[in-house]
DNA sequence: GAGCACTGC
């Protein structure tokens, strides 16, 4: 940054400032250093906090700034991410994940220990960043000494400025190489085939430089890599060597690492990637980008409480981010496999912010515990759908976290301490009474590790499925997960032999350790039920998501939706009469994932306020009672 | 009988 003095002047004059700058403009590393050196802003020994959407970014930026300023990482400059606090009493500049700062509001609602808060990569609009916007705007009103910087890429800075009461926008010039963009003349019917043809054309006709292809998921990536390899084999020595490498988040780490090895002389590297290469990792040497213009996006239907993952055209902002990946080391080229007209008229300007596409159970609980009672009127930059808030409130009421006035209960206050979904925190708290907290902690940790524990490579499907069957125990999937956790011993060798994802296991262990560490604070004693699965089944998944067998499928007890047991479930063939599911996902059908068998009588024992014996009668021919429970207005 | 983009506390 050339204009450090100007920037400092602007910061002294305004409480909130929006900073617009491309990645590579040095805003993330330089600005906090200017602030640190400036005595006007730093007469008090308060911290400068700088949030990042990703853990690795927080760590690596902190390491770089520590090096540049010649201090030891963790002293004056440090970072704080889940499972890892690398700060000390001397820390002045702290890089952290946005979720971490959000959690800090629970212990320090006015962020008193900070003199400056920087929200970096604001344009990404992560769920946590969006909540921070509302909270920070609010505290800035009474903390006039707090400086707030909102740093974003070029897009949307006007909207940020507008949201923060017309805060001035300070622009920092970027340093990036130009990228030429090419469109197709007509739409492509088969974009996978078009990708393969484009890669080969680049390989044969273009100057040296590696190539990056954006696809939507594992299956597409595998298909594309196979097609490329097959055609290169057929062309044989007529063309130079092409090194084809897949990358996606679920790929085992040793295979991921291959994309970073240098391209052999005379050869060309092609990396076939998901969106992981759009923001999360950067590959050096990319000169060509091929963009078919699609991505998989999560969406959430609050009327049914169901999530789904759908292939959608990506936004113009996302397409531009992808193109930018070609211009990091030299001038590059981006080949878009859609027409210029489609780019202009058919693609959205920006991606829909996450807050509008996700379940908000834990966010609502967090805001309630910060004393924000009227969520409908909370200052969201883009408010979530009304139904999403209503469903979250309904769920929290059912779990006993809110009373009928929508106020936080003592139970809710304890639940908010745990960094997991409300259903999981409720079951952990309930496990105390049923003397099985030891097991329930493990189950909660395993359920909160979203991506699959079971590794199922295409060429070893039979082996993988056999390995998985060996973990089957009576009762349901929660107990299978508990069994896997207890057997694993966290050995890479064991995981490999049993087709278990080691990364997921390590994560489950970290989560479990963290949760166990919080048990004292919420006054839950850690005890084991010793082999008895009944108490575990009474509390796991908790009673909120129940379904009963009903001609060929299941019906949810509270909303009478037709749903099915997922074919990967250990209960797929058993089809028990009553069960509890952890989540609903819509793919080819409405599926319940992670289910456990229960006795309907338990529901009256565990949740008498929520179930009436009439709803639990077993004569399926009988007309179902009308929906009971609280209405929207009562919950407000 | 399915098929899981990416993050984060």
Automatic annotation (TrEMBL):
The keyword Cell division does not apply. It comes from the Eukaryota. GO terms for cellular component: catalytic step 2 spliceosome. This is RNA helicase. Its EC number is 3.6.4.13. It holds the Pfam family WHD_HA2. GO terms for molecular function: ATP binding; ATP hydrolysis activity; RNA binding; RNA helicase activity. It catalyses: ATP + H2O = ADP + phosphate + H(+). One of its GO terms (biological process) is mRNA splicing, via spliceosome. Residues 8-173 form the Helicase ATP-binding domain. Residues 614-636 are annotated as: Disordered. CDD domains: SF2_C_RHA (cd18791). SUPFAM superfamilies: P-loop containing nucleoside triphosphate hydrolases. Keywords: ATP-binding, Helicase, Hydrolase, mRNA processing, mRNA splicing, Nucleotide-binding, Spliceosome. Residues 198-371 form the Helicase C-terminal domain.
